[in-house]
Amino acid sequence: MSSPAKKRKRDDPGTSSQRTRSIASFFQGQASRQAEKTPEAPSEQTLSDEALARKLQAEWNQEDAASAAQTDGTSSTGPIATPLETGDNDREPTKVQRKGILSLQSSTGTEDTVSLAVPFDQNPTTFDIAKYVGELKGHWVAEGGDASYALLTRAFVLANATTSRIRIVDTLVNFLRVLIEGDPSSVLPAVWLATNSISPPYDESELGLGGSSISKALKKVYGLNSQGLKSLYDKHGDAGDVAFEAKKRQSFTLIKPKPLRIKGVYQSLKKIAMSKGSGSQEAKQRIVEKLLQDARGAEESRYIVRTLVQNLRIGAVKTTLLIALARAFLYSKPEGAEFSVHPQRDMARLKKEELAGIYSNAEEIVKASYARHPNYGDLVPCLLEVGVTEELLVRCGLQLHIPLRPMLGSITRDLSDMLTKLQGRDFSCEYKYDGQRAQVHCDVEGKVSVFSRHLENMTEKYPDVVSLVPEIRGEGVSSFILEGEVVAVDQETGELQTFQILTNRAKKNVDIGAIRVSVCLFAFDLMYLNGLPLLDRSLRERRELLRSLFVEIPNRFTWVKSLDATSADSEVVLDFFKSATDAKCEGIMVKVLDNVSRSDLEPNGTPAVDTTDTPEQPPRTGEKSESKNAKGSRRKALLSTYEPDKRLESWLKVKKDYSTSSETLDLIPVAGWHGQGRKAKWWSPILLAARNPETGSLEAVTKCMSGFTDKFYQANKDKYAEGTPNVISRPSYVEYYGEPDVWFEPQEVWEMAFADITLSPTYTAAIGLVSDERGLSLRFPRFLKVREDKSIDEATTSDYLAYLWRKQSERTKLDGDRPAETQLGWQEELSVEVG
Ligand code: ATP
């Protein structure tokens, strides 16, 4: 399994048709089968609890016997203990000599009341860590030693119960502290579970759970029939909530001598991911059932299922967890660790700003480490050993064959906006090619890895790029990490081809002899050379090394086309921009070349320290503004350095003007209405939503019926045909008050143009961010294209929408133009009709 982002991502253009399942599709089978439902033998629902328990026990015994016979090649002669009997979630069934092991108990009263009472959401400066660690350790010993899954569930429940990010962070901080001090070996599995992943993004592990596994398990374990399951799903719209309800209704359960442990659950997920080949679906199914059987209480069931469907919805995004880790290791360390921590009572005495300063320094270090080395499997053990120290960046920093998170560009309105922003700077304008970003790693042995923008391993996809390495690696280059854009290129003419052509390439096992889409790698950065990270060098220096040490091969490997300029060169820059768009590029990327502006040079020519406070935008696709720097952090003085995972103003994107507003949004189609007139056979308009990463919801932004071709409409109708898994019941996670005719399973991202962003009484996107009563919507929304390279987790966030609205308001004020707070009403309807 990977993070939800990884699971749903279609970073690879070649896999655009491969849709991953969403929560709703787990229940789809039931929906369609209802119609043809025949009278059944007494349904599980009609059995008494005891009869049901006996029936289940008999079935499990039978299955275990069959599976044991399959494994060891013998037929079973004696009873087989299910994990229920052995109390072990992870062990394979073993033969036992006992009989009559079935017993029942009320499902109430089985919950872990000790864990349920821990007030993780307190401020870490007042949280009584010693008391809770003492109590919990005693409790865990009685139950087998390791931290219980109930404790993690407790943290999830508290995080889910609030929209306050401070509280979510506090909850995670205190939870992590309890583990660091009480059971350090559970910290890593807890971090994987809290991030809804089991491996780093460049590792291929996927849960690969079939759509029916979870619904089957829910039916079996909680004694539901198909109709019961479907009506629960129709009511709740979230698989975890269905599990919660089902578990609550279950009045009796088989005795579970050993409760779920954090480690055990994580290991179960690993086992699910590792089950391959024939019989693997059954094996996975059994693990899912065991997890559900062993869940104590409805909340544990809810979070087990949310984990399995990879939609945890606790409002803790990646950055939140990194922040929580950083803060937790400021207060706590495992027994015997040698690094120093801050005594809680000292922290409690600090002024608010002082505490914020300490937190922010620690967070910078942990985030920087993760951006260079995005693997919790390495980060957490290092933290347990050295705490939050500069040593962390050395131990867990840039490493060959581990992709760093790429630096990102900020958007600009147009060329003049860009020129204003970079006044006084020397910058490089580069063609913004329309291909796939690639990070190429090569070690001294000549081993090559290629990673995508989203850190997926693409080495098998681009054997032709791999084969270029010995030729492009100039003399004196032993190891390197470089970055560029892979673009489909006509090998005869050198002409750039569209991104669409690149999508024809398969994702894996590409045979170098059978390649039909030839590509060229246009290199634009060098981050590591001969064992040394270059991130802190200026772009001018990195570029110089790249261009002088590597060797061009016509139409296969070259540098991005570029022009060095300053704000005074507007005409030349405009010509360059035009030449880029003429060459089928998306526009230009503009990058600051040096760490200081020329005006910052002291009279004697020595550079003064640049303390420019570079405002970071809320990321377009990712986390909240928590990535914003504390004032005076060391990073700000280094504008042209390579900043992994940062979206700074030292890289600016200037794209072709699509519409009145040069901004575009990446929205998720979530619902549709039956079209009228000529469009009666299609869905039109279509409802689009932005993401709220805090709540996990999708917030409706606009209806759109403009920019679609008839062919597109038809394809859309075929895709979201009623009766297919792509059309779902009203999902609880979409925020919209209206009643569309159909709800789409959220699965794709559309790039949308628009004229303005407006305050709206109808739409809920970004509500509370710019107005308490009104959300944000778009005037004259127009469909541009499907973003094949984006997953729904990378769609525009409501936060970003609010940011654009504020920017637009500022602009309007400056221009003395029409008020930006245009209210929606008839205008919105008009914009819907213009299509
Ligand atoms: P993000 O900035 O998050 O990647 P996005 O997916 O919307 O956002 P774009 O706005 O299309 O991406 O622009 C950024 C992408 O442009 C880069 O990730 C990279 O793949 C591509 N690109 C093309 N040419 C260049 C270049 N010269 N320098 C940097 N990136 C380039």
Considering the chains and any ligands shown, give keywords for the structure.
835 residues, alpha+beta, DNA ligase i, domain 1, 5 domains, eight-stranded mixed β-sheet, six-stranded mixed β-sheet, 28 helices, 15% strand, globular, disordered N terminus, binds adenosine-5'-triphosphate, DNA repair
List the SSEs and their pairings.
Elements: H1 4-8, H2 28-34, H3 49-72, E1 80-81, H4 83-86, E2 94-95, E3 104-106, H5 113-116, H6 129-143, H7 149-160, H8 165-182, H9 187-194, H10 211-222, H11 226-236, H12 239-249, E4 252-254, H13 262-274, H14 280-294, H15 297-308, H16 318-331, H17 344-349, H18 352-372, H19 376-386, H20 390-395, E5 408-411, H21 415-421, E6 427-432, E7 436-442, E8 448-451, H22 463-472, E9 480-488, H23 499-502, E10 519-529, E11 532-533, H24 539-549, E12 557-559, E13 562-565, H25 570-582, E14 587-592, E15 647-655, E16 665-674, E17 683-692, E18 697-704, H26 710-719, E19 727-728, E20 734-735, E21 742-744, E22 750-753, E23 756-760, E24 775-779, E25 782-786, H27 798-815, H28 826-833
Parallel strand pairs: 5-15, 10-12, 18-20
Antiparallel strand pairs: 1-2, 3-4, 6-13, 6-14, 7-8, 7-9, 9-10, 10-11, 14-15, 16-17, 16-21, 16-22, 17-18, 19-21, 22-25, 23-24
The structure holds adenosine-5'-triphosphate.
Family: Belongs to the ATP-dependent DNA ligase family.
Biased composition (Polar residues): 14-33, 68-79
GO molecular function: ATP binding; DNA binding; DNA ligase (ATP) activity
